[in-house]
Specification:
Helix content of chain A: over 70%
Order of helices and strands of chain A: HHHHHHHHH
Order of helices and strands of chain B: EEEEEHEEHEHHHEHEEEHHH
Distance between the termini of chain A: 53 Å
Strand content of chain B: 25-35%
Shape of chain B: globular
Structural class of chain A: mainly alpha
Strand order of the largest sheet of chain B: 2-1-12-11-5-10-9-8
Number of strands of chain B: 12
Shape of chain A: elongated
Oligomer: heterodimer
CATH class of the largest domain in chain B: Alpha Beta
Number of domains of chain A: 1
Strand content of chain A: under 5%
CATH architecture of the largest domain in chain B: 3-Layer(aba) Sandwich
Chain lengths: ~260, ~280
């Protein structure tokens, strides 16, 4: 009897998990579909690009600059041991463009814009604003979520590019300006050793991370519980889950794109 | 159903009065909805006559808000039908539902005004999104509707800058701005003091008369809300227990309703009844 009961409970858990996963995936597919279905609202797209992209710019420049500076410092000290300080530019640029740029930029945007997104949608859910849209015959996914997905797909690669460029200059400032690495070799090394594949690896990653962050944060906010702790829980879960998935997908993408 | 009746909980009803002569704007038939193990709606049958205010009352957990969410098409029933203007909406797809939704306005319990928009933008929103009116026409309609709810001159304010009563008025203006045939109101006086409650009730009555609306209201404000209602439906244990004009329902010799009016019926009682 106990085995039957346990099996029943396990089955119910599995079914519940599959249903939740299905709803999660359907949310993304529906959101993506509505990007291409009229009415198109460029005003909403631009607003979201401003919120996700332009408003994150200062943070991206700040974190990109410091990341490049640390890479310049550590890279110079490490490479000098092997007499290879001339390769500093190549190392800094490759690490940033292929790996740290997309990952750190995505983590920063998830923390800043993603959390705000989850909190905003969660608050809209708990105050029935999303129901109000539905009752007005306005599709809430199309009005609230699809513009954010589109804005994320546009903003993430651009912010990542800014992160990379600022980081490379940060590395130059510390590695060459402070530590004394050869100036000419820094940028010449980048030009000689970095190719289109390296850049596209970063672009693909930032696109995937953009979809992940917007998907998770919007889903969590949109389905926040209508209680006092609902919004805070949704926000926390959105940031934690999107950060974890960024790192997990980074591994898989790296192994595919290497 | 064309007559006022008492439902004794066994599915059979007893007539206690005559029905209004006008047709029904909304007809609900044997509506059932279960959430998990709880049968929240257990065969609700109810008519909403055109041009009248019908108020749904009942203890917490009786299913009145869930019923309203089925009538405003936010939820789908497990079984039963809802008919709007001779259209059975329970079988409609997304496009058909949107067409029906354009016929009614909804005032939510918390107002559901968009925080990021001014009052003008909130009220203009349904017109901007769903009509082809010019900016001037939209502005004229917004000013006109704000005047009707006594909020002229408040266009530039944001919801957070207004009192609870003013937010309710603004939300009512948004519900009315597209000139719907049916107005639905979910606990319109929740969180308001008695004087503001009276003012909102008066506004609802005046608005219903001015716009010739059919109004469906869920309220816990008994018996104050009866003053503005034409008809009352008392829900108990997920069923229509009493349904009729205010005078008929108030005169009904029904213990459950009397206990509710005396404040003795509670959600706990319902849950016990459901569990039993």
């Amino acid at each position: 009897m106990a085995i039957v009961e346990m099996t029943g409970r396990l089955g119910a858990l599995v079914i519940d998990g599959v249903v939740r996963l299905g709803a999660f995936v359907l949310f993304l597919l529906t959101t993506a579909l509505y990007v291409f279905i009229p009415p198109f609202k460029p005003r909403l797209w631009i607003r979201q690009i401003r919120i996700i992209g332009a408003d994150s710019l200062f943070l991206i420049i700040l974190i990109g600059g410091f990341t490049g500076m640390v890479l310049g410092l550590q890279g110079y000290n490490t490479l000098r041991r092997f007499g290879s300080d001339g390769a500093l530019g190549t190392v800094v640029a490759l690490v940033l463009v292929r790996e740290l740029g997309p990952v750190l930029a995505a983590l920063m945007i998830a923390a800043r814009a993603g959390s705000a997104m989850a909190a905003e949608l969660g608050a809209m859910q708990s105050t029935e604003q999303i129901d109000a849209l539905t009752v007005m015959a306005i599709n809430p996914i199309q009005y609230l979520v699809s513009p954010r997905l589109l804005a994320g797909v546009i903003s993430f690669p651009l912010l990542t590019a800014v992160f990379d460029v600022v980081g490379i200059f940060g590395g130059y400032m510390v590695g060459v300006g402070l530590m004394g690495a050869p100036s000419g070799a820094y940028f010449n090394g980048i030009a000689a050793n970095m190719d289109g594949h390296d850049i596209m690896t970063g672009v693909y990653k930032s696109l995937v991370f953009g979809v992940i962050v917007i998907w998770i944060c919007c889903y969590k906010g949109y389905h926040a519980d209508r209680m006092a702790t609902g919004v805070s829980r949704a926000t926390t879960e959105a940031v934690v889950l999107s950060s974890a998935l960024i790192l997990a997908f980074d591994y898989f993408l790296t192994s595919i794109l290497l | 159903m064309s007559q006022t009746e008492i439902n004794h909980g066994d599915g059979h009803a007893q007539d206690i009065g005559n029905a209004p002569s006008a047709g029904n704007a909304i007809e609900v038939r044997d509506l059932r909805r279960r959430f998990g193990r709880q049968q929240v709606l257990d065969g609700v049958t109810l008519d909403f006559p055109a041009g009248q205010i019908t108020t749904i009352v009942g203890p917490s957990g009786s299913g009145k808000t869930v019923l309203l969410k089925h009538i405003n098409l936010l939820l789908r029933p497990d079984s039963g039908t809802i008919v709007f203007d001779n259209v059975e909406v329970t079988k409609l797809g997304a496009t058909g539902l949107d067409a029906v939704r354009e016929k009614f306005g909804m005032l939510f319990q918390a107002g559901a005004l968009f925080d990021s928009m001014s009052i003008f933008d909130n009220i203009a929103f349904p017109l901007v999104e769903k009509t082809r009116l010019t900016r001037a026409e939209i502005a004229e309609r917004v000013h006109e509707t704000l005047k009707a709810v006594g909020l002229q001159g408040m266009e530039a304010k944001f919801p957070s800058e207004m009192s609870g009563g003013m937010q309710k008025r603004a939300a009512l203006a948004r519900a009315l701005v597209r000139r719907p045939k049916i107005l639905m109101l979910d606990e319109p006086t929740t969180g308001l003091d008695p004087s503001r409650t009276g003012a909102i009730h008066e506004l609802i009555r005046r608005t219903q008369e001015n716009f010739q609306l059919t109004a469906v209201m869920v309220s816990h404000d008994v018996p104050a809300v009866f003053e503005v209602s034409d008809r009352v439906a008392f829900l108990h244990n997920g069923r229509t227990h009493l349904n009729g004009t205010v005078a008929q329902v108030m005169a009904a010799d029904d213990d459950v309703f009397k206990r509710f009016l005396a404040g003795k019926a509670s959600g706990e009682e319902n849950e016990t009844a459901l569990a039993g």
